[in-house]
Specification:
Layout (H helix, E strand, L loop, with lengths): L2 E4 L6 H11 L6 E4 L10 H14 L1 E4 L3 H12 L4 H16 L3 H12 L4 E3 L4 E4 L17 H4 L2 H8 L20 E4 L13 E3 L2 E3 L11 E4 L5 E3 L15
Parallel strand pairs: 1-2, 2-3, 5-6, 6-8
Antiparallel strand pairs: 1-9, 4-5, 7-8, 9-10
Helix pairs in contact: 3-4, 3-5
Length: 241
């Protein structure tokens, strides 16, 4: 059985479909999605519909992203958040305005059931953004950090690559887990890039909302697959560019 982790999709369901074909997904695989299912391209509703269908056929774990929470809040209240609209929310709002109430209700259940993180039996941690507490996820004060924090990747990127986890100067925050898999902070907004590892943190947000592709990574072998640049599936659209 493979454990496969997928970066931020940002409504790019056409890229996701290509990726699933490339990786030759089987019923024995476990697919972990790191959040940000919406906001950027025009197919937000179709993306969540696809994920819900996928869950009925494969073993899937869905993590909560900040964009998913922003979308959920709008679906509940219809109160427009200018920050959300400016960062991909407009396309998502327009997609949902063309959907019926049953679809809204189905998707609200999907958003409400998302997990803030997933800690596997092999001590690999999966979450959208990060955590701030030196003792790890169980001690986090604010659950919003799990899908908003950017300091974990900043910390991992700043570590001297010569440092080992056993070194007394290695950050305590990173010593609790074998590996941590995140999205949230795009590795590039203007070019096609590969996933990156810093310390024991893997970032698989390869900029699908911008000019990059969508990435799926086998957490054991580190083999990975990438879609074509997502913007090429949506000619005439800007995404978050």
């Amino acid at each position: 059985m493979r454990t496969l982790v997928v970066g931020d999709i940002h409504s790019g369901v056409r890229a996701l479909e290509q990726l699933i074909t490339k990786a030759k997904i089987t019923s024995s695989d476990h697919i972990i999605f790191l959040g940000d299912y919406v906001d950027a391209w025009s197919t937000a509703v179709e993306t969540v519909d696809f994920l819900i269908q996928l869950k009925s056929e494969y073993k899937c774990t869905f993590i909560r992203g900040n964009h998913d929470e922003l979308c959920r809040a709008w679906l509940v209240t219809q109160k427009e958040n200018p920050q959300w609209l400016a960062h991909g929310g407009t396309a998502t709002r327009n997609s949902y305005l063309n959907a019926d109430r049953d679809t809204w209700d189905l998707h609200l259940r999907f958003y409400e059931e998302l997990k803030n993180y997933y800690l596997a039996n092999d001590n690999r941690l999966y979450l959208h953004a990060g955590y701030t507490n030196l003792k790890g996820i169980d001690y986090e004060y604010f659950e919003q950090s799990f899908y908003w924090d950017r300091t974990l990747w900043e910390l991992a990127s700043a570590i001297n690559p010569e440092l080992k986890p056993t070194d007394p100067e290695f950050p305590k925050r990173l010593t609790h887990y074998k590996e941590v898999f995140i999205g949230h902070t795009p590795l590039s907004k203007n070019k096609f890039v590969e996933p990156q590892k810093k310390a024991n943190v893997w970032n698989v947000d390869t900029g699908a909302a911008f000019m990059g592709g969508l990435t799926m990574l086998d957490v054991e072998s580190k083999e990975y697959w990438q879609s074509d640049p997502v913007h090429t599936f949506y000619p005439g659209e800007r995404g978050r560019n």
